[in-house]
Amino acid sequence: MGFSTMAGEDVRPDRLENLAAGLRFAARAIGQRYTPLLAQVVVTRRCNLACGYCNEYDDFSPPVPLKDLLARVDHLADLKTASITFTGGEPLLNPDLDKAVRHARKRGMIVTTITNGFRLTKEWIDRLNVAGLQGMQISIDNLEPDDISMKSLKSVEGKLELLSKHALFKVNVNSVLGVTGERTQDVITVAETAAKYGLQHSVGVLHDGSGLLKPLSPAQMQAYERVTQISPSMVHSLNYWLFQKNLMNGQGNDWKCRAGARYLYVTEDGRVHWCSQQRGYPNKALLDYTVEDIKREYHTEKGCAPTCTLSCVHQMSMFDRRRQAIADPTQAAKAGVGEGAPAPVS
């Protein structure tokens, strides 16, 4: 039985609905090429924190209006997008986040969100439960806040307890290794705390301002190994073998990035970019984005790919590894790109 509102409307997806969404994802991943598997949609650029290593926020932007969010969700559904992640900034600063989640679920997509957790309350958790949210990633990088990262365990451990008690969606705690050498051991404590509350933990590798490699120190390598022992998961194993193993050892990866096709990053102004770290290309309005744009970006080589650390892009591109080689990017460029778009990164 689904989770019902007081008015009796059954809106939370039951297991069969979740299974159906998973099967749709698998079918589009394996059986098709020119359908997006994941769209990350910014619902506000504003964040309540100011972490030194982050370049994905400001402190003034208003929330994206609900009507615009719903229109973007509808267009993504029309493109047969399999899943959507609402992100920011800090998505909980958009008071209509749960309404966007509900709408995306009704359009048949897998729906998740990424948050720093500071604004989580039981009321918010209940609203997201009712809306049908299927997953939340909460970011925690250290034990005490500092200028590099304010996303500390001290600030949000109470939120983890709230989630463990009340969330009907899956919760993953994510930490970034490489923020500072002094805080390397903090990631281990974060992983242990997540396990204490019955929550999954994953670890990312810090990228620079372009989303590219920042090698790990020996101490950070040891911390990574320890974290994967504390919280063994498919996510850890997948990321390690897809790209992290080489990057952590100072080597690039030979892979074909499908950003702009299998993965879409939609900024608060409703425009499509390769990813959060390569904003500016193709820089085309989502509502004007077509299958032809997807085909072009699918076959466009990304010069930043060998040292990319963005797990979501690697994961969404892995299904096409055995498919045809990328076409000559100069031919793709002749097909035209979004207004004002710069040349692809080299």
Keywords:
single chain, 346 residues, alpha/beta, disordered N terminus
SSE blueprint:
Layout: H1 15-31, E1 38-42, H2 66-78, E2 83-87, H3 97-106, E3 110-115, H4 122-131, E4 135-139, H5 153-166, E5 170-177, H6 184-196, E6 200-205, H7 218-230, H8 234-248, E7 263-266, E8 271-273, E9 282-285, H9 291-298, H10 311-317, H11 329-334
Parallel strand pairs: 1-2, 1-7, 2-3, 3-4, 4-5, 5-6
Antiparallel strand pairs: 7-8, 8-9
Helix pairs in contact: 2-3, 3-4, 6-7
Q: Could you describe the 3D structure shown?
A:
- The chain is of the alpha/beta class.
- The chain has a domain at 263-334.
- It has helices at residues 15-31, 66-78, 97-106, 122-131, 153-166, 184-196, 218-230, 234-248, 291-298, 311-317, 329-334, and strands at residues 38-42, 83-87, 110-115, 135-139, 170-177, 200-205, 263-266, 271-273, 282-285.
- The chain has a nine-stranded mixed β-sheet.
- Helix 2 (66-78) links the parallel strand 1 and strand 2.
- Helix 2 (66-78) packs parallel to helix 3 (97-106), helix 3 packs parallel to helix 4 (122-131) and helix 6 (184-196) runs parallel beside helix 7.
- The longest helix is centred in the first third of the chain and has 17 residues, at 15-31.
- The radius of gyration is 19 Å and the shape is globular.
- Residues 1-13 and 337-346 have low confidence and may be disordered.
